[in-house]
Amino acid sequence: MRIYMDEVINAVCLHMADRRGVQPAEVEVELAWDEEYGYTAEVWVQGRSQFLVESNLLEAIEQYVLRQYGIRAFRSQITLGLDDEIWADIAV
C-alpha cells in the first residue's frame, strides 16, 4: 500500500491536531528531505513552529493508516520515499 504526499500531510495534520487539542484545519505542514536530517516536517499550530523528524512522521502515518484504513502497521513496515514528492509505502 502506498500513500502519497497529500495523505502524508493529512496524517501529520491529524496527529498534531490530536496532540495539541486543535482542529486539523488549524495545522499547517511542510514536508522536506535533506541529506543531513532525512525526512522532516515543519508544523505550524496556533502561530508556533515545530520541527518533526522521521520517527515523528512514521508515528503519524501509523495512526493515520489505522484510523483511515483499519490497518495496524508498525514503523518497521513503513518506508518513506521521494520522487517528485514524498510518499510512504506500508507493507501489509
Automatic annotation (TrEMBL):
Pfam families tied to this protein:
DUF2653
Report the superkingdom from the record: Bacteria
Record-given protein name: DUF2653 domain-containing protein
Organism annotation: Paenibacillus darwinianus
The lineage is: Bacteria, Bacillati, Bacillota, Bacilli, Bacillales
